[in-house]
Write a structure and sequence with these properties.
178 residues, Alpha-Beta Plaits, four-stranded antiparallel β-sheet
Length: 178
Protein backbone atom coordinates (compact mmCIF):
# COMPACT_ATOMS: atom_id res chain seq x y z
CA UNK A 1 0.00 0.00 0.00
CA UNK A 2 1.37 3.37 -1.03
CA UNK A 3 0.24 6.89 -0.23
CA UNK A 4 -1.99 8.62 -2.76
CA UNK A 5 -3.38 12.14 -3.00
CA UNK A 6 -6.96 12.27 -4.29
CA UNK A 7 -8.47 15.58 -5.39
CA UNK A 8 -12.21 15.99 -5.96
CA UNK A 9 -13.25 18.70 -8.40
CA UNK A 10 -15.89 21.27 -7.54
CA UNK A 11 -17.36 20.04 -4.28
CA UNK A 12 -18.72 22.10 -1.39
CA UNK A 13 -18.76 25.33 -3.38
CA UNK A 14 -21.86 27.18 -2.31
CA UNK A 15 -24.89 24.92 -1.99
CA UNK A 16 -24.06 22.46 -4.77
CA UNK A 17 -22.16 19.19 -4.76
CA UNK A 18 -22.15 18.97 -0.98
CA UNK A 19 -20.15 16.11 0.53
CA UNK A 20 -19.31 16.06 4.22
CA UNK A 21 -15.70 15.04 4.82
CA UNK A 22 -16.57 12.53 7.58
CA UNK A 23 -18.98 10.80 5.16
CA UNK A 24 -16.32 10.80 2.43
CA UNK A 25 -13.73 9.30 4.79
CA UNK A 26 -16.25 6.66 5.87
CA UNK A 27 -17.07 5.82 2.25
CA UNK A 28 -13.43 5.43 1.21
CA UNK A 29 -12.49 3.47 4.33
CA UNK A 30 -15.47 1.18 3.80
CA UNK A 31 -14.27 0.56 0.23
CA UNK A 32 -10.98 -0.79 1.57
CA UNK A 33 -8.71 2.24 1.37
CA UNK A 34 -6.48 2.70 4.38
CA UNK A 35 -5.29 5.67 6.43
CA UNK A 36 -7.92 7.93 4.87
CA UNK A 37 -7.57 11.57 5.91
CA UNK A 38 -9.06 14.76 4.51
CA UNK A 39 -7.97 18.38 4.51
CA UNK A 40 -10.45 21.26 4.64
CA UNK A 41 -13.86 20.92 2.99
CA UNK A 42 -12.90 21.10 -0.68
CA UNK A 43 -12.26 17.45 -1.46
CA UNK A 44 -8.63 16.86 -0.55
CA UNK A 45 -7.96 13.27 0.46
CA UNK A 46 -4.78 11.39 1.36
CA UNK A 47 -5.05 7.62 1.61
CA UNK A 48 -3.15 4.39 1.16
CA UNK A 49 -3.90 2.16 -1.82
CA UNK A 50 -2.15 -0.23 -4.15
CA UNK A 51 -4.26 0.98 -7.10
CA UNK A 52 -2.72 2.97 -9.91
CA UNK A 53 -3.91 6.60 -9.85
CA UNK A 54 -6.11 6.19 -12.96
CA UNK A 55 -7.93 3.21 -11.45
CA UNK A 56 -8.23 5.04 -8.13
CA UNK A 57 -9.82 8.01 -9.93
CA UNK A 58 -12.43 5.82 -11.62
CA UNK A 59 -13.20 3.91 -8.42
CA UNK A 60 -13.60 7.06 -6.35
CA UNK A 61 -15.87 8.63 -8.97
CA UNK A 62 -18.02 5.49 -8.97
CA UNK A 63 -18.18 5.29 -5.17
CA UNK A 64 -19.15 8.97 -4.89
CA UNK A 65 -21.86 8.59 -7.51
CA UNK A 66 -23.26 5.45 -5.86
CA UNK A 67 -23.28 6.94 -2.35
CA UNK A 68 -24.05 10.62 -2.94
CA UNK A 69 -25.60 10.64 -6.42
CA UNK A 70 -23.02 13.18 -7.62
CA UNK A 71 -20.88 13.04 -10.76
CA UNK A 72 -17.64 14.40 -9.37
CA UNK A 73 -14.39 14.34 -11.34
CA UNK A 74 -11.41 13.01 -9.41
CA UNK A 75 -7.70 13.48 -10.07
CA UNK A 76 -5.19 11.30 -8.20
CA UNK A 77 -1.42 11.31 -7.86
CA UNK A 78 1.05 9.03 -6.15
CA UNK A 79 2.93 10.52 -3.24
CA UNK A 80 6.07 10.69 -5.40
CA UNK A 81 4.24 12.44 -8.25
CA UNK A 82 2.87 14.95 -5.77
CA UNK A 83 6.31 15.50 -4.24
CA UNK A 84 7.71 16.21 -7.71
CA UNK A 85 5.08 18.94 -8.19
CA UNK A 86 6.25 20.62 -4.99
CA UNK A 87 9.91 20.15 -5.87
CA UNK A 88 9.49 21.76 -9.31
CA UNK A 89 7.72 24.80 -7.79
CA UNK A 90 8.05 26.68 -11.10
CA UNK A 91 6.78 30.03 -9.86
CA UNK A 92 8.05 29.94 -6.29
CA UNK A 93 10.45 32.82 -6.90
CA UNK A 94 7.69 35.20 -8.02
CA UNK A 95 4.68 33.90 -6.09
CA UNK A 96 4.66 36.03 -2.95
CA UNK A 97 1.38 34.74 -1.52
CA UNK A 98 0.70 30.99 -1.36
CA UNK A 99 -3.05 31.66 -1.43
CA UNK A 100 -2.74 33.26 -4.90
CA UNK A 101 -0.36 30.67 -6.27
CA UNK A 102 -2.26 27.72 -7.68
CA UNK A 103 -1.47 24.39 -9.19
CA UNK A 104 -4.08 22.80 -11.42
CA UNK A 105 -3.79 19.03 -11.51
CA UNK A 106 -4.79 17.57 -14.88
CA UNK A 107 -5.90 14.06 -15.61
CA UNK A 108 -3.84 14.10 -18.81
CA UNK A 109 -1.49 16.42 -20.64
CA UNK A 110 -2.88 19.39 -22.52
CA UNK A 111 -2.97 19.67 -26.27
CA UNK A 112 -0.52 22.30 -27.59
CA UNK A 113 -3.40 24.61 -28.57
CA UNK A 114 -4.70 24.60 -24.99
CA UNK A 115 -1.22 25.44 -23.68
CA UNK A 116 -1.04 28.35 -26.14
CA UNK A 117 -4.43 29.65 -24.92
CA UNK A 118 -3.24 29.59 -21.30
CA UNK A 119 -0.02 31.40 -22.10
CA UNK A 120 -1.93 34.03 -24.07
CA UNK A 121 -4.39 34.51 -21.19
CA UNK A 122 -1.67 35.34 -18.65
CA UNK A 123 -1.64 39.13 -18.52
CA UNK A 124 1.24 40.72 -16.56
CA UNK A 125 1.82 40.43 -13.67
CA UNK A 126 0.23 36.97 -13.87
CA UNK A 127 2.45 34.04 -14.76
CA UNK A 128 1.76 30.51 -15.95
CA UNK A 129 3.89 27.41 -16.49
CA UNK A 130 2.54 24.17 -17.92
CA UNK A 131 4.59 21.12 -16.96
CA UNK A 132 3.35 17.68 -17.95
CA UNK A 133 0.02 17.26 -16.12
CA UNK A 134 0.18 20.39 -13.97
CA UNK A 135 -0.46 24.06 -14.57
CA UNK A 136 1.32 26.42 -12.18
CA UNK A 137 -0.40 29.82 -12.09
CA UNK A 138 0.42 32.99 -10.18
CA UNK A 139 -2.56 35.34 -9.73
CA UNK A 140 -1.18 38.33 -7.76
CA UNK A 141 -4.45 40.26 -8.18
CA UNK A 142 -6.62 37.22 -7.34
CA UNK A 143 -8.77 35.07 -9.59
CA UNK A 144 -11.99 37.10 -9.65
CA UNK A 145 -11.22 39.00 -12.87
CA UNK A 146 -8.37 36.86 -14.14
CA UNK A 147 -8.55 35.78 -17.77
CA UNK A 148 -5.88 33.20 -16.98
CA UNK A 149 -8.01 31.67 -14.24
CA UNK A 150 -11.04 31.68 -16.54
CA UNK A 151 -8.98 29.81 -19.17
CA UNK A 152 -7.67 27.27 -16.63
CA UNK A 153 -11.15 26.62 -15.22
CA UNK A 154 -12.83 26.48 -18.64
CA UNK A 155 -14.19 23.28 -20.15
CA UNK A 156 -12.31 24.40 -23.29
CA UNK A 157 -9.16 23.25 -21.51
CA UNK A 158 -10.15 19.83 -22.82
CA UNK A 159 -9.13 17.73 -19.80
CA UNK A 160 -10.35 17.08 -16.29
CA UNK A 161 -8.59 19.53 -13.99
CA UNK A 162 -8.83 20.71 -10.41
CA UNK A 163 -6.83 23.51 -8.79
CA UNK A 164 -5.36 23.90 -5.32
CA UNK A 165 -3.50 26.83 -3.83
CA UNK A 166 0.12 26.38 -2.79
CA UNK A 167 -0.73 26.17 0.92
CA UNK A 168 -3.03 23.23 0.24
CA UNK A 169 -0.51 21.57 -2.09
CA UNK A 170 2.29 21.64 0.47
CA UNK A 171 -0.03 20.57 3.29
CA UNK A 172 -1.22 17.56 1.29
CA UNK A 173 2.37 16.49 0.71
CA UNK A 174 3.05 16.76 4.45
CA UNK A 175 -0.02 14.60 5.08
CA UNK A 176 1.15 12.02 2.56
CA UNK A 177 4.51 11.89 4.32
CA UNK A 178 3.03 11.50 7.82
Amino acid sequence: MARRVVLLRGINIGSRNRIAMPALRELLTGAGYEDVTTYVQSGNVVLSSSERPDKLERNCEHLIFERFGLSIAVVARTRNEFAAVVERNHLGEVAESPKRYQVSFLREQLEPEAVDRLIAAAIEPERVVVDEREVYAWHPEGVARSKLWAAVASPRLGVVATARNWTTVTTLLEMADA
